[in-house]
Design a protein that fits this description.
8-stranded antiparallel beta barrel, single chain, 183 residues, 2 helices, 15% helix, alpha+beta, Lipocalin, 9 strands
């Protein structure tokens, strides 16, 4: 059901592009997360993030495969996929929302713009409303979106077994970086 909503949103964005809007997309955005815990730090990166931004109305969405996160240690990657996010059962994470102050961005002028992104973040079929600050940087027609925010694992039913409680933080830091080009 959630995947159907995302497909519908991307379809609407593509259709609306034909009707005077400007759609910017990427298929290789990056999302990285960092967990700082007493026994070890864990970091993983996903460079296969699909994202779309409709600059005429601020609609923004991204989708990523959970299995595409890459870890330094293969065992961490296995635990992440099999035990924590259960990527066999919940293969995708996604965001659907809006850049609230899109009208303040002049795509014809290179520069960095402070933004707020608000919408629904879905991980493991749990959807929560979020509102996070970020920046959009316009440079020669390319829009780079960046944001850093924290996510509580418990909020998304990511349960950490007691034996790993000192290895994994209950709140992880998320780094989003997408370079969007006009479609």
């Amino acid at each position: 059901m959630k995947m159907n909503k995302l497909i519908l949103l991307f379809s609407i964005l593509l259709i609306s592009h034909a009707a005077f809007s400007q759609l910017y997309i990427t298929r290789n955005g990056q999302i990285r997360f960092f967990s700082q815990a007493p026994l070890e730090n864990i970091e993983a990166v996903n460079r296969q993030v699909n994202a779309a931004l409709n600059t005429s109305n601020g609609e923004f969405a991204f989708r990523l495969l959970m299995r595409a996160f890459s870890f330094d240690k293969a065992l961490m990657q296995e635990h992440f996929n099999d035990n924590f996010v259960e990527s066999h059962k919940y293969p995708n994470a996604m965001f659907q929302g809006n850049v609230l102050n899109i009208e303040a961005i002049n795509l014809n002028v290179n520069g960095q713009y402070n933004i707020t992104v608000e919408g629904d973040l879905t991980i493991k079929d749990v959807t929560r409303k979020i509102s996070e600050p970020g920046t959009l940087t316009v440079k020669d027609g390319v829009i780079t979106g960046e944001s850093v925010f924290k996510v509580s694992l418990a909020d998304y039913n990511v349960n950490i077994p007691n034996r790993y409680i000192r290895n994994i933080a209950g709140e992880i830091e998320i780094f989003v970086n997408v370079e969007l080009r006009e479609r």
